[in-house]
Amino acid sequence: MGTFESFILLLDSTVRLSMPLLFAALAGLYSERSGVFDIGLEGKMLAAAFAAAAIGALAGNVWLGLLAGIAVSVGLALVHGFACITARGNQIVSGVAINFLAAGLTALIGHAYFSQGGRTPRLENEARFLPIEWPGAEQLADVPFLGPIYEELISGHNLLVYLGFVMVAVTWFVIFRTRFGLRLRAVGENPAAVDTAGISVTLMRYQAVIICGVLCGLAGAYLSTAQSASFVPNMSAGKGFIALAALIFAKWKPVPVLYACLLFGFLDALGIRLQGYEFPGIGEVPVQLIQALPYILTVVLLAGFIGKAEPPKAGGVPYVKER
Amino acid sequence: MGGVSTFPIRTNSHGMTAASETPPNDGPPAGAPLAIELRGIDKRFGAVHANRDINLKVRKQSIHGIVGENGAGKSTLMSILYGFYEADAGDIFVSGNTVSIRSSNDAIAKGIGMVHQHFMLVDSFTVIENVMLGAEGAATLQAGREKVRRDLKNLSDEYGLTVDPDAIVSELSVGLQQRVEILKALYRGADILILDEPTGVLTPEEADNLFRILRQLRDQGKTILLITHKLREIMAVTDEVSVMRRGAMVATLQTANTSPSEIAEQMVGRRVLLEVDKGPAKPTEDALVVENLTVRDRFGVDRVKNVSFTVRRGEIVGLAGVSGNGQSELLEAISGIEAPASGRVLVNGKPLSHTGDPAEARELGMGHVPEDRLRMGLVKTFEENENSVLGYHNAEGIGGKVVIDVDAVRNHAKAHIEKYDIRPPNCRLKTANFSGGNQQKIVIAREMEEDPDVLLVGQPTRGVDIGAIEFIHKRLIEMRDAGKAVLLVSVELDEIFGLSDRILVMCGGEIVGERLPDQTDENEIGLMMAGIDEAADKAAQQTEAAQ
Fold first, then answer.
1. Of A110-119, B165-174, B203-212, B309-318, which has the strongest mean pLDDT?
2. CA dihedral B477, B478, B484, B486 (to 10 degrees)
3. What range defines the domain where residue A257 resides?
4. Do B108 and A323 touch (CB under 8 A)?
5. Closest CA in chain B for residue A197
6. Ranked by mean pLDDT, which of A114-123, B18-27, B308-317 comes out on top?
7. Does a structural domain hold residue A57?
């Protein structure tokens, strides 16, 4: 296989690996832009992955699985919303609690119900999101340069991948071109201004949190019904946190979020490619080091290469009407 | 404004009015069309009775002031009018019709707009985005943006409220941000504009500009409700004024027929001495000597330039100046907080070593009431008694270097509370829960009761109620009469004139002149503060002419 082909394959897996990050980061974008910090992206994603795989396996239908994943994720999002918005609790504590809850409950229920060590049964094809071959992909595969790009990179992904890219554009439009987006941004910066303008802060924040739940549901369903064919305990493996890092990188803006997620996806894909690879002069680099690369990069970049990332001003602060 | 002659303390030459038994009420003439009428508005927050049976009539096309001390219930009343709170009882009439205002949206729909004390603006948004927030017109923004742009242009033509519609709000000056707030209200069709303490954050020039705009808005048919605790503003701009005291509306007066002292009396509920009563000073020997002091900031800029002066025992020296002309830096250098670049400070003949340790200044007999009590004078989250010994906590009898005698500290605090009438009289209460005036009394009590020879006082009455201002001024005179040297730094000219035996004027980090209060006036000092020394110019011309 030539260098070009392997590069295309690398980019192809970059796209696949970026998707859960992208959905989760966009989820976080809505929530945090409204002023509700969400460290529980990870937990929501994991719970949704389990629900999608479990219901998908039982019902044998990918759409029911997806719906179940979204429903569970939205449920957890509403718990977070209630704790942070209505009860004015600490947003970090609530998020951490949701992560623990999801990690424990998915393993426990999976173990008790399916008796496969916490896994769900392998999903049949009709319960999965399968790659979609674009017309003419096979015929064009032999066309030099453009053929492999079309066949590997553009064609042959599952529906959720395409949806992910569409969501970036949709989110950009919603945030910057709609009334809802204007109010969402305002409520994260100065909720009192929104309140005095006659808009309900509580309602705005709940809407944002619910959207966050839906997108986390998509991220989770992607993990267990598109990327793999079953749920495995703790399969989100920190992706929710990487998504948060990507969100900060991107300074809470939709298009940069896409780039940040692709970058992390690329590092992930590269890590997998480089396993067992003999570097000239160095020899084989331990797998762990390569796997740690995205995290190291996160720390390095966040420590000073991206400039000051300013979070929404009212983020993390419950809104209390002044007496 | 004719000079600064509307300063309350300077305008009470017509003397005190006697406390009247029945509240005067020469409000709007009967039959005048009313913009707003409140009948029997009552509001409680738990045990606090914030508004008691309030009646208020606001004439259409007038500027109506609402004054009262902090906590008198002005803001609560206005919040009820703007739908932030709902009244427990009472009726609101707008243009003669009874209305129910349950939310800001209701208020806006009835043509009531509010300019809040802390601006309700999204800093990172443009002016247009801020104005359209809540009134976008459609689900997408494009059409709304264009409409706002057109309307802002019209409003700016009509009222002279010019502001760049595409500017980011955080990059605008405070005065312009306030203008955006006004535009927001006007854009949403406000006929009645409520302004809550609008000048607190403005420079005097910006404030005058605001008053000009308010008058123009009135002349073009708007009704303005101005909430303030500054009598100067009431006298300068209102047509009528209503006075609140402890949740009740105690009087409504025609501004033209009243005086600052009458309003002050209504506010406090007793006669208030706006003019400080003091005898002549009997200064003796030098207590504070400042020699060639230069203070350089961290950017290498000289903020205080080669300043020298003395303060003698038994006199109050007032340091006047527009805020930011080096007074703060000078105070910090004298009190030992900042080390000066050069020069020295002597207290009772002993020089400060300037090690950046204010404890040394204290040991030499200097007390310091800092300009910004919350930043430098107090720890807000401490209990009152803890703050009452801050800086003196090592003293004999209060504590020691290791263990603090809690009972002694509390007794100490109780003595201060009694002597300085600090309210509520509870030394275990968190300092943040005291009003601004009482917080200031905590600091003043602490610094004065240690019996310093030299007392530095920065902005002693900033954000303090009239009643407490009177008390603080009296105490400062008492300190002087007890033979202490007092250096008073204030941006309030009336305070400088009321208290000082000598006035130093600071401008651009230098002391540009010294005057005796009875041989100058606020005009001259004001010019000197701005860096124009008329007298010196005149003297120079005269000598020239003589030659």
1. B309-318
2. -30
3. 3-128+136-304
4. no
5. B134
6. B308-317
7. yes
State how far the Cα of A258 lies from the Cα of A173, in Å rounded to an integer. 14
Average pLDDT of chain B, as a whole number: 86
B292: Cβ contacts below 8 Å, ≥ 6 apart: B306, B307, B308, B342, B343, B344
Q: What's the rounded Cα separation, in Å, for the pair A173 and A215?
A: 16
Give the closest residue to B521 by CA, choosing from B505, B507, B539.
B505
Look at residue A217 and tell me if it is in a domain: yes
Nearest-by-CA chain B residue for A199: B134
Nearest Cβ partner for B138 among A179, A189, A195:
A179
Residue % of chain B over a pLDDT of 90: 51
Average pLDDT over residues B72-101: 91
Whether B123 and A197 lie within 8 Å, measured CB to CB? no
- With an 8 Å Cβ cutoff, is B168 touching chain A? no
Encode pLDDT of B66-78 as tens digits.
998 877 888 889 9
User: Does A196 touch chain B if contact means CB atoms closer than 8 Å?
Assistant: yes
In the block, residue with structure tokens 């719970």: A47
Scanning the structure block, which residue is given the tokens 């020899």? A283
Taking the C-alpha atoms of residue B344 and residue B350, their distance in angstroms, rounded to an integer, is 10
Residue A54 lies in a domain: yes
Considering only CB atoms, B104 lies closest to which of A178, A190, A196, namely: A196
Give pTM, 2 decimals. Answer: 0.77
Chain A: nearest CA to B142, how far in angstroms? Answer: 7
Q: In this structure, are residues A148 and A141 in contact, taking their beta carbons and an 8 Å threshold?
A: yes
- Residue B67 to residue B389: CA distance in whole angstroms: 35
Say whether B514 sits in a helix, a strand or coil. strand
CATH of the domain at A143: 1.10.3470
Q: How many CB atoms lie within 10 A of CB B457?
A: 28
Supply the ipTM of this predicted assembly. Answer: 0.87
Cβ(B288)–Cβ(B352) below 8 Å? no
Count of the separate structural domains present in chain A: 1
Residue A321 lies in a domain: no
CB nearest to B140's CB, from A178, A193, A195: A178
Nearest residue on chain B to A180, alpha-carbon basis: B139
> Taking CA atoms, what residue in B is nearest to A201?
B134
Closest-approach residue (CA) in chain A for B103:
A198
Contact of B414 with B445, CB cutoff 8 Å = no
Residue B230, pLDDT score: 80
* Average pLDDT estimate for B354-370: 87
Inter-chain touch A193–B133, beta carbons under 8 Å? yes
The number of beta carbons lying within 10 Å of the beta carbon of residue B62 is: 20
Whether A49 contacts A235, CB under 8 Å: yes
User: Which residues contact residue A320 at a Cβ distance below 8 angstroms, ignoring those fewer than 6 apart?
Assistant: A88
Say whether B139 and A178 touch across the interface (CB within 8 A).
yes
Q: Establish if B84 touches chain A: CB-CB under 8 angstroms.
A: yes
Q: Nearest-CA neighbor of A49 among A32, A31, A24, A29?
A: A24
